[in-house]
Amino acid sequence: MTLTRRDFLKMSGMFAAWTALASCAPNDVLTPAPTTAPVGTAFPTLPSEPLTDEALLVHTLKRFTFGPTPEMIEKAKRIGLNAFIEEQLFPESIPDDATDKLMDPFTTLAMTPKERFRLEKKGLPVQELISATLLRQRYSERQLFETMVDFWGNHFSIYIAKGGCKTLKTDDDLKVIRPNAFGKFRDLLHASAHSPAMLVFLDQSTSIGDAPNENYGRELMELHTIGVESGYTHHDVEEVSRALTGWTVVSPRDRKKEAGTYYFNPQIHNSGEKHVLGMMIPSGGEDEGMMILDMLASHPSAAKFISHKLAVRFISDSPSPEVVDSLAQVFTQTDGDTRALLRALIQSDSFKASAGQKFKKPLDFFISTLRLTDATLTLNSRNGRKVQEYLRVLGQVPFTWSPPDGFPDNEEYWSTTSGLLDRWNFGLLLTSNQIRGMEVDLKNLTRDAASAEDVVDVLSLRFLGELLPDNARAILVDFASSGDLDKDIPSIAGLILGSPHFQMR
After folding, report:
1. pLDDT (tens digit, 9 = 90+) per residue, 216-260?
2. Of the residues 15, 244, 255, 316, which has the fewest C-beta atoms closer than 10 A?
3. What is the pTM of this model?
4. What is the rounded distance in angstroms from the CA atom of residue 60 to the CA atom of residue 144?
5. What is the DSSP string of 213-278?
């Protein structure tokens, strides 16, 4: 491919514009020097004046969706923010037939684990679950539900490429995470502890009485419930692991039981009483594990640990102790009711003052570009892997984080110069319709724009929910005025998507 002089000048101008935009981070804080390692907070924000009602609405929708479309913002304005959130908290009341229809081609979603184990294409369930997840996040009207499915799926993280998880993660998503996304934490914890995918991923399915495997027992406390700072000891890990021996999964080779399902095998259980966190657990087979799950779900440290994680996801990377304590009180009072926690979080002063303080993870960025450009996303056997490859470059394909702690949710990890360049490149490819399986109609989005200023403003309002600050706007208007406006609209759109302002939730 030969690069013409005009192409070279255009690319040079675009890079210069992107570099200039990068220096126009919120509150005029400069970005750090180029590096490929984590660079710390690239776009810190300063205390601001209280948000107007409209700004608070947009801020709330940015945090609780994968990208608030203009139609969604208008609906929230029409019925009121509180009514909109209440509607989202009960997703069954929101018709979503069009999204459900998109699931029809993915036949493995309706299969039993036994049927998936028999497939010749062992990777097909993986590809279909990832594709189904992306389509739901892109198209579903039940945006808060999909956001919480993502949150809990990352909290109870399972690496889909590990052994039987390729087959079993589908049921974990459909039968564990989704049914309990708005329920009580205790129920979700019990469901996860009985999830064959979780038991395989953390080696619980092979844990036997005379040689307990400690992986699941450790992560159950450290990552799923009370956190490492709660004061549990290695002895507690050993005792929990003893109590959970016998919690296993039917092997695909077992002809007497349904393959890929949970069952308790008393023959490999370590009997006898156990002592966990100062509590005596009497010998009782499967009931020992059930008692431990209930104890962990109601532990004060679990209330604080889960509240802190919710605050990190929806408020800031470093939420105040006051807001975490306030949420922990709600957790304790409601037995960890997710709806109650979200209502309290939204009403908190910390949340209302947190606009611009959360950096988008790669998946948040990816889906928000599709939603706010109104891109058509088509995932099938021909282009599904290609689309996932772009996500892999950005850094976050669903269910592919191999450690059990889930994808990081902090700006320090994701805000690298190379990562930001990858986002800029993706935005330009998307708006130029150079990605198979994705199509953007920029002509329709800018049909009412008659000048360079109009194009910049129309696209800023569409993508950001507000106009760009004057300094960033001036850079883009200057770029848009320097060439053929009609031909440069994809570049203008891509520059906005790659700007610091679009990276914030």
Report:
1. 999 999 999 999 999 999 999 999 999 999 999 999 999 889 999
2. 255
3. 0.93
4. 11
5. --HHHHHIIIIIIS-GGG---HHHHHHHHHHTTTEEE--TT-SSS-TT-EEE-GGG---S-EEETT
